[in-house]
Automatic annotation (TrEMBL):
Taxonomic source organism: Urochloa decumbens
Protein name: PsbP C-terminal domain-containing protein
Region of interest: Disordered: 17-37
Coiled coil: none
InterPro entries linked to this entry: Mog1/PsbP_a/b/a-sand, PsbP_C
Length: 253
């Protein structure tokens, strides 16, 4: 994923970028009320009529459709260990105290175990995928020896140099959004990218900490993006690094 980027490490420097705004949502439609006219019918008949009327109210076109419950999430703790120190067994039980980054994982997603060879060649550190659609996934890669970020546009270009899938998404994208975010307004710098390709949608977050570059990817085919956009954005927004000496976050969110 990042072999070509290794040769460009000295060029990575800090910069600033654009911001984005969000349109305000329209006010919610006030609930409708149902008024029943008085009548002299027996009590049982009246109760049946009232229940039927209530059912019609719930099925009214102006009523919002029922929604599924939000999926549950767990927090993944990534250690960004070197290939030499990597056991290759996966898991998350003993990583909390040594974690360098965290992100949310939907309950039911599966972890793909990363080999030492893959970790050593392209920097992939962790990956989870939806078992119903393996190409709907999130993963983190890291590169050591990088103290600061390059200009906003240069980082995305460098990421794409060694990632054919990302290259195709950018080449067919209807739009590519890029912005800089500072944690807490004045803290650590994160670059945020959104690539809306012809076949897939990707959200990418990149930052530098501990003399390393970390890149978190959330990607899904357009059909899954349309269905799971809110969840996928949550995964993207959950990624952050942990500063040395800082307490680890909670085990669930």
């Amino acid at each position: 994923m990042f072999p070509s980027l290794l040769s460009r490490l000295p060029s990575l420097l800090l910069t600033t970028a654009s911001t984005s705004t969000t349109a305000a949502s329209p006010p919610p439609t006030p609930p409708q009320t149902l008024r029943l006219q008085p009548n002299n019918k027996p009590l049982a008949t009246t109760l049946v009529a009232a229940a039927a009327a209530a059912g019609l109210l719930l099925l009214s076109p102006s009523s919002p459709p029922p929604t599924l419950a939000d999926p549950e999430f767990t927090v993944y703790y990534g250690t960004a260990a070197s290939a030499a120190n990597y056991g290759g067994y996966g898991g998350n039980a003993s990583k909390k105290d040594t974690a360098e980054y965290v992100y949310d994982v939907p309950t039911g997603w599966k972890e793909r175990l990363v080999s030492k060879v893959e970790k050593g060649t392209n920097g992939t550190d962790s990956e989870f995928f939806n078992p119903r659609k393996r190409t709907e996934k999130e993963y983190v890669a890291f590169l050591p020896g990088i103290r600061a970020l390059a200009p906003l546009s240069a980082v995305l270009d460098n990421l794409a140099l060694s990632d054919v899938v990302l290259q195709d998404q950018i080449a067919t994208a209807e739009g590519v959004r890029a912005e800089e975010r500072r944690e807490g307004g004045e803290g650590q710098v994160y670059y945020e990218y959104e690539v809306a390709g012809a076949g897939a949608h990707s959200l990418i977050s990149v930052t530098c900490a501990r003399n390393k570059l970390y890149a978190h990817f959330v990607t899904a085919p357009n059909a899954e993006w349309g269905r799971d956009e809110a969840m996928l954005r949550r995964l993207h927004e959950s990624f952050r690094t942990i500063q040395p000496g800082a307490p680890p976050p909670a085990t669930e969110s």
